[in-house]
């Protein structure tokens, strides 16, 4: 029987530090998945990753080939956001600029839908505090990105931080594509 282990991968050292602190029995690696290969795996889960990468279809093909026989690739990506707050709307506008400049697509879920072996839609609407914290963490990663220069990231970060105490719900509704891809070869 093959030993099971969990490997977390991210390009952000800060995100990896947070992950290591919260999940001590996993291994974490810093990689750029826009170019780096995945290790052979039985199960790969990626959430809100392909929207940041150019050529997500090519990444899916590469990741599928890394799956062991019978393996699965599970992906969750936005198909749409319904936003009912001006600060969160400013974030959506800003992130679309930053992602688009790098070849990303904030709503890549709809584009990937027909490629999946199985697909479902899900709708989630976390409290404003959770959304503000998530969006704020993303802002930190924009540091040296030239696309973020004219976006007044510091003001947006302060406005998001002011919403971290809010328990209001329904301000952002995420419409997600939940996609399953099966192994294409014997990795």
Describe what you observe in this structure.
The chain is an alpha/beta fold. Helices cover about 35% and strands about 25% of the residues. It has helices at about 15-20, 55-65, 85-100, 110, 130-140, 155-160; strands at about 5-10, 25-30, 40-45, 65-85, 120-125, 170-180. The strands form 2 sheets. Strands 3-4-6-5 form a 4-stranded mixed sheet. The longest helix has 16 residues, at about 85-100. The protein starts with 6 loop residues before the first strand and ends in a 5-residue tail after the last strand. The model has no long low-confidence stretch (mean pLDDT about 90).
**What is the number of strand segments?**
6
The parts where pLDDT drops under 50 for at least 5 residues are none
Strand order in the sheet with the most strands: 3-4-6-5
**H and E order:** EHEEHEHHEHHE
What is the strand content? 25-35%
Radius of gyration: 17 Å
Helix amount, in percent?
25-40%
Mean pLDDT: 91
- Using the alpha-carbon principal axes, give the shape: globular
Count of helical segments? 6
Alpha-carbon distance between the two ends: 17 Å
The biggest beta sheet is recorded as: 4 strands, mixed
Q: From the helix content, strand content and strand pairing, which structural class follows?
A: alpha/beta
């Amino acid at each position: 029987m093959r030993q099971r282990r969990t490997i977390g991968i991210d390009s952000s050292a800060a995100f990896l530090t947070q992950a290591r602190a919260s999940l001590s029995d996993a291994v974490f690696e810093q990689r750029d998945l826009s170019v780096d290969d995945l290790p052979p795996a039985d199960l790969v889960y990626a959430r809100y990753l392909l929207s940041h990468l150019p050529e997500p279809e090519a990444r899916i093909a590469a990741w599928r080939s890394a799956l062991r026989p019978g393996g699965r690739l599970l992906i969750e990506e936005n198909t749409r956001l319904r936003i009912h707050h001006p600060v969160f709307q400013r974030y959506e506008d800003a992130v679309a600029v930053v992602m688009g400049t790098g070849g990303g697509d904030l709503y890549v879920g709809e584009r990937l839908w027909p490629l999946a072996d199985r697909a479902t839609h899900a709708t989630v609407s976390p409290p404003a505090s959770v959304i503000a914290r998530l969006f704020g963490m993303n802002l930190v990663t924009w540091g040296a990105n030239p696309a973020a220069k004219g976006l007044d990231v510091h003001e947006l970060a302060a406005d998001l931080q002011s919403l971290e105490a809010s328990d209001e719900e329904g301000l952002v509704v995420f419409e997600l594509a939940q996609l399953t891809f099966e192994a294409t070869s014997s990795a």
